[in-house]
Amino acid sequence: MAGLTVDKFTENEVVKKCLKDLQEEFPEGKNPLVVSDVLDNAGHQYVNLVQKGGGVLGVALVGYTYILEKMNIRFIRLAGTSAGAINTALMVAAGTKQDAKSEYVLDAICKLKFIDFVDGHPFARWVISKFITHQDFGVKVKRFFSAIIFTLVILLAGDFIFLGLQNAISWISIFTKVFFGLTGLCLLFIAVLIAYVSTLLKRLKNSGFGINPGDFFYDWIKEKLHENNVITVSDLMSKASAPVPGLHLRVANSEELKGLDGDVTFICSELVSQNKIQFPEMWKLFRKNMDDLQPAGFIRASMSIPVFFESYFIEDIPCTDEEIKQIWLDKFGETDPPSSARFVDGGILSNFPINLFYNPKVDTPRLPSFGIDLDDSVPDDAGKNSKMWSMTGYFGRIFNTIRFYYDKDFLIKNKIFKKGIGTIPLQGYNWLNFFLSDKDKIDMFNKGAQAATEFLMQFNWQEYKTDRIEMKLKIIEEQLHSGNAENQ
Amino acid sequence: MWTFIISWTTFSIFFGVILLLSFVMKLKSLHFYTKDVVIKRFNIMDLELPATPNELVNTLKGLYQLPGSISKNAVSALKSHLYLDFLFMPFAYGAIFILCMLVSSKMDYPFGIILFQVLAWIQLIPWLCDIIENVYILRKIKPEPAISSPATHTAYLIMEAFKWGIAFVSIIAASSMISYFWLTGDYAVSSFHYLLIVLTEIALFFIMGKIFIKSKKKAIKNSI
After folding, report:
1. How far is residue A61 from each of residues A241, A279, A443, measured CA to CA in Å?
2. How far apart are CA A328 and CA B145, in angstroms?
3. Interface touch B176/A310, C-beta < 8 Å
4. Which residues form the domain of B42?
5. To 10 degrees, what angle do helices B124-140 and B53-63 make?
6. What pLDDT is attached to residue B191?
7. Which burial class, exposed, middle or buried, applies to A63 when counting CB atoms under 10 A from its CB (0-12, 13-18, 19+)?
8. Do B112 and A177 touch (CB under 8 A)?
9. What is the pLDDT of residue A2?
10. What digits encode the pLDDT tens for the residues B115-165?
11. A205 closest CA partner among B170, B99, B38
12. Are A78 and A264 in contact (CB under 8 A)?
């Protein structure tokens, strides 16, 4: 990655144009950008931020936050899943809430070889790289196996023919012996191939069905947290909830500054108890003492793409302890807590946890919830024709319907939150392509910056507030109706 | 003496010893558990062909992270497996040597004769590789083994490729020729009983495996 510097991201023409357009649209003093009523003395506006998961597409998230920060927007509460959790963690750990963090995150990206995250068996790494970077790799694999079978058939036919002929022509026996030898070697090759594949499959089973251990990622994120003095979970929570000096409201609000403490949430999927876990908030489910857990583990758990990465485990949960049992019971209605927990990517349950910041008690919002959506879906007419789906397409649709509906359902019911979401179009990029070129990274960053610019151009804080108030009134009205109906 | 060594009688004896030692080593390998995040099984091939230097170290380090007696059993089983392997080697490579020499003696053309003699004597290389490999692993069996440099790791893997490659190619080449002699009827009827001895040894190996290994495997698994 030598050669990739923060400047190459931030000083390129696309990003400069985005900032110029925004400065022209929102000139200082004349028509300033207003996105929130929560401000600090330095003039930063505060919002909540949710970052969606999406593997390497996470680079685009940084482009988006970079523009927000350049426009003096800062973040009180942060949440994310998978790649979104990684960015969230780095943004929480670095500096103070008043500081811009995106350049720090970019610097971390520049110093990082994404391919190092793929830390499994070299063969698995090779196969993954070929499948992702060469579209015809599947065809080549088929051809390879066909060639082996064809060779074996030819050799066996040769054995059969020469063995018969050598009775009539004695010197043919040389060819018979050579063909026998070659057949043996061909069979040896096939046997070694089968043994190798079965060994890899056994390894996959032994490693809990994860190709890559994820150790490199764990060590990397741990190092990043440590260099910002986030060693323990307490450190992480203190950083996330650190008060902002001089925080005040632009307009009066009955809630005043109550609840504007800040926090951080990483979403994970826990397979033993089959629950969505929000770290660090739910640490009490797993330990008596918060600092017995590792903050790096929360992010490692959130990004454990099933099969691609090994699961993250928390073992030796004091599941017989009465206090812990009570917490499991209160939280999940679970009477028999597990002794160990196994986490995979939070994205399988909630890849875009915008619902976290929904507070039904709020009458008039003081700050909006911003969300960064990553859209790598390719317009696919064939996808609409359900009768034409292949088996993988069919199962893929089932999986995606289940996977996305949790977040989608929230947005359907709370349309107002859509107003705070900006979508980064990333068609053509593979979210598992850990072999991205520098050019691709910069291009993704630019797309993030452009999406943020577009979003800020159309975002209207007053309209958001009004809609949110109306939404609240509608809920009250519905509650009154249902109350009346029950009384009747 | 040489005629006795290069004979089916010696081969049958060597083959029997190989199966017996394999059986004992298999019993030892039932204790091969390590802790790398979670407790998991491993086999000797994981140590012979580790994907990365870290992987070998993690497997060996994990032996000491297992709970008390399981850790003790795993370490002792691995060490005795490797020491037994030193005993296994002369019989394994010796058997391949004999097989190749026997095939060589039946070849008609000089090329075939020399080829199989070379394959026979070249077994000294995998034997040497096997010794180095065992010493390398034995020296790393400790709670905090040093991670090998990438160059050492690559050299180790190349050595493994030589070891397995030479041994397997020799076995397959010799077996192919034996199959050829069998199909063309070019064998001495007087040596027929050696085939029966070898087949009986194989059958005994599988029967013993069925009787002892399955139940022991289950018992060890339940204790973990």
Report:
1. 22, 21, 12
2. 40
3. no
4. 2-223
5. 60
6. 81
7. buried
8. yes
9. 53
10. 999 999 999 999 999 999 999 999 999 999 999 999 999 999 999 999 999
11. B38
12. yes
Cis peptide before A318 (omega within 30 of 0): no
ipTM over 0.90: no
Listed as ranges, residues in chain B with pLDDT below 70 are none
Residue labelled with tokens 């002794």: A339
**Do residue A310 and residue B52 have CB atoms under 8 angstroms apart?**
no
Strand partners, A370: A49
- As a whole number of angstroms, the distance between CA A349 and CA A355 comes to 13
Instruction: Tell me the C-alpha distance between A278 and B98, whole Å.
Output: 66
Antiparallel, parallel or unpaired: β A263-270 and A45-51: unpaired
Report CA A322 to chain centroid distance, whole Å: 35
- Note whether A310 contacts B37, CB cutoff 8 Å: yes
Strand partners, A424: A374
pLDDT band at A259 (very low <50, low <70, confident <90, very high): confident
Question: How far is C-alpha B212 from the geometric centre of its chain's CA atoms?
Answer: 20
How is chain B classified by DSSP, letter by letter? -HHHHSSHHHHHHHHHHHHHHHHHHHHHHTT-EEEESEEEE--HHHHHS-SSHHHHHHHHHHHTTS-HHHHHHHHHHHHHHHHHHHHHHHHHHHHHHHHHHHHHHH-SSHHHHHHHHHHHHTTHHHHHHHHHHHHHHHHH-SSSPPPPPHHHHHHHHHHHHHHHHHHHHHHHHHHHHHHHHHHTT-S-GGGHHHHHHHHHHHHHHHHHIIIIIHHHHHHHHHH-
Tell whether B118 lies on the interface with A, counting CB pairs under 8 A: no
List CB contacts (< 8 A) between A183 and chain B. 176
Q: What is the dihedral of CA A159, A162, A166, A172, to 10 degrees?
A: -110
Check A208 against B184: CB less than 8 A apart.
no
| A178 touching chain B per CB within 8 A | no
Tokens at A16, concatenated: 């400069």
- Is the Cβ pair B173, A184 closer than 8 Å? yes
> Which of A119, A152, A155, A177 would you mutate first to test chain B, the one with the most B CBs within 10 A?
A177
Tokens of A229: 């003095």
User: A314 is written with which tokens?
Assistant: 């928390």
A379: pLDDT strictly greater than 80 = no
Query: A456 is written with which tokens?
Result: 């800020």
Q: Give A-chain residues touching B54 at CB under 8 angstroms.
A: 215
User: Which residues on A lie below 8 Å from B177 (Cβ)?
Assistant: 177, 180-181
Number of domains in chain B: 1
| Structure tokens that stand for A427 in this block | 């068609």
Question: What distance in Å separates residue A57's CA from the closest CA in chain B?
Answer: 28
Q: Which of A401, A443, A399 is nearest to A425 (CA)?
A: A443
**Half-sphere CA count of A106, side-chain side, radius 13 A:** 26
CA dihedral A253, A259, A261, A267 (to 10 degrees): -130
A177·B184 Cβ contact <8 A: no
pLDDT of the residue at A1: 44
Give the predicted TM-score (pTM) of the model.
0.83
